[in-house]
Amino acid sequence: MVATPPSSWILLPLIAIAATLYALLFSTIAPPARGIQELAVDANAAPSCDYSAGTWVLDPSRQPSYSEDCPFHRNAWNCQRSRRPGMERISAWRWIPRQCELPAVDPAGFLAAMRGRRLGFVGDSLNENFLVSLLCVLRRGDPTARKWKRKGAWRGAFFPSFNVTIGYHRAVLLAQYRELQPSDLPGPLKNTKLKKAFRVDVDVPAPDWANVLSFYDVFIFNTGHWWSRDKFPDDEPLVFYRRGKPILPPLGMREGLSAVLRHMVPRIEAALPSTALALWRLQSPRHFEGGEWNQNGSCMSETLLSDQERERWFSSGTNSEAREINTLIQEVLQTSQKFRVLNITPLSEYRRDAHPAIWLGRKDAHLTWGQDCLHWCLPGLPDTWVDILCEIILGFFHSRA
Q1: What range(s) does the Trichome birefringence-like C-terminal domain occupy (predicted)?
Q2: Predicted pLDDT of residue 188
Q3: DSSP state letter for 343
Q4: Cβ distance 38 to 97 under 8 Å?
Q5: Fewest 10 Å CB contacts: which of 94, 182, 214, 336?
Q6: Which domain range does residue 12 map to?
Q7: How many other C-beta atoms lie within 10 A of the C-beta of residue 288?
C-alpha cells in the first residue's frame, strides 16, 4: 500500500510514537500489503512482527542514511555519485508496518548490542546489495570501520570500536558448481548440441561458505536470482549430481533448486551453534517493464506501484520469478527448527522507482549491460531492510539475555 500523509503531518516531530500514529491512521484508508508472512520457526525466539504487511508513507523530512563517500559502496549501486535524479525522494519513503513500530536503526546502539559478535551474509549479489547498505548505515556508529576480507569472504567490514565483524560470502547457487565440457556430459545429454553445461552437486556446499558455519553468530542466507534461464539458458544448462553421480532423468531448473535446498538447509542447521541466529531472506523483486534486461527492459519510473499494479506485475510474466521461488523456499523451510524467514518481498514489490536503471556508475554502461532493474540504489530501499534486520537481531539476542 502507498499513501501520502496530509501536509500538516509533515510538521509533526519524528518521535518514537510516529510509526504507531501513521499505522493507525493509514490502516483505515486501505488494506495493508499482503504477502507471505514472516515465520518465527525457532521455538525459542521472541515473538516477532510481520514486517511484510504495511504502508509506504512519503516523509520529506527523511534523509538518506549515508553519502556517496561511504567506503563500502559498490560503484554500480552508488546512485548519488552517478547523479541519478530523484535520490532524495527515493530515500524519503518510510515503510510503516501494520502491526508494530519500525524505528530507524541506531548504528552505535546496534553495534554496542552486538559487541564481539559476527554477522555473515551468504548468497548472490542481492545479499551483497543488502550487505553494502548495512555496512554504510553502521559506519555512522563507528567511522573507523575498515574493509575486511577473510575466511573466504568476498567482502566485508570490521568495526574496531565494537569488535564487530560482518562478511559476505558469494555463493550464487549455494551448492558447489563448475563448468562441464560437452565431452563430460552424462548419458542423455552427451549427444546434444549444447555449447557447455554446469555441474551442480546438490549435496555439496559451495566452498565459499562451507567452513564458516561456526564462525558467525548471525547468518543471512539467500539464493534464487541465478536459478533462471537468464543465467543458464537452454544451451548452457545446469546438470545436477548427487553423491558424485548425475541425477537421471535430468532435473529441471526449479527441481534442481528444490534438491539443493533440501540438502543445504539440514546441513546448515546441523552445523550451526545452538546460540546462532539463522535467517533466510526471501526474494528481492525485479521491475523490468517491456522486456528482460537484454530486451530493452526498463525501470525509469519515478512512482511506486499501486496495489492493483503490483498484482498485475508479479502474478505472472517477466517479474513473477520472485513469488514462484519464494513458494518453493517456504515449502522447504516449513519443517525447519532453526531458520527464520526475513520476508522483504511484498514491501519491495511497490518500489519500481528505486533501481539504478541507466545510472550504473559508468557512462553508457546500460548500452552494453541493459538497465539494472534488479539491484537497488544505495542509499535507498535496502536501508529499510536493514532496519527490519536489526530489529529482528536485537530482539533475538535480547530474548536470550
Answers
A1: 102-391
A2: 76
A3: -
A4: no
A5: 214
A6: 2-398
A7: 23
Q: Angle 92-49-8 (CA atoms, 0-180°, nearest 5)? A: 35
CATH code, domain with 142: 3.40.50.1110
Closest Cα to residue 82, out of 366, 385, 382, 381?
366
Q: Which residues contact 120 (CB under 8 A, 6 or more apart)?
A: 153, 166, 167, 168, 169, 209, 212, 215, 216, 218, 219, 220
Average per-residue pLDDT for the chain:
87
Residues 231, 235, 240: CA angle, nearest 5 degrees: 70
Answer for the pair 95, 102: CB distance below 8 angstroms, yes or no. yes
SS3 assignment for 259-325: HHHHHHHHHHHHHCCCCCEEEEECCCCCCCECCCHHHCCECCCCCCCCHHHHHHHHHCCCCCHHHHH
Judge whether 65 and 379 are in contact, CB under 8 Å. Answer: yes
Helix axes 253-271, 321-333, angle to 10 degrees: 40
Cα-to-chain-centroid distance, residue 298: 21
Domain count, the chain: 1
Q: What does residue 384 show for φ and ψ, rounded to 5 degrees?
A: -70, -40
Contact yes or no for 300/359 (Cβ under 8 A)? no
Q: Which of 252, 240, 250, 254 is nearest to 180 (CA)?
A: 240
- Kindly report the backbone phi and psi dihedral angles of residue 242, in degrees, each rounded to the nearest multiple of 5, phi listed first: -140, 135
Phi first, then psi: what are they for 239, rounded to 5°?
-120, 125
Q: pLDDT tens digits for 327-383?
A: 999 999 999 999 999 999 999 999 999 999 999 877 766 656 679 999 999 999 999
Cis-peptide, bond into residue 143, ω within 30° of zero: no
What is the per-residue pLDDT across 15-48, written as a single tens digit (0 to 9) for each?
Answer: 333 444 333 333 333 333 333 333 333 434 444 6
Residue holding cell 553421480? 245
CB 347 within 8 A of CB 388: no
Average pLDDT of the segment spanning 284-295: 79
The three cell numbers locating residue 151:
575466511
Residues 308, 349 contacting (CB under 8 angstroms): no
Give the separation between CA 339 and CA 272, rounded to whole angstroms.
11
Q: Taking a C-beta distance cutoff of 8 angstroms, is the pair 287, 303 a contact?
A: no
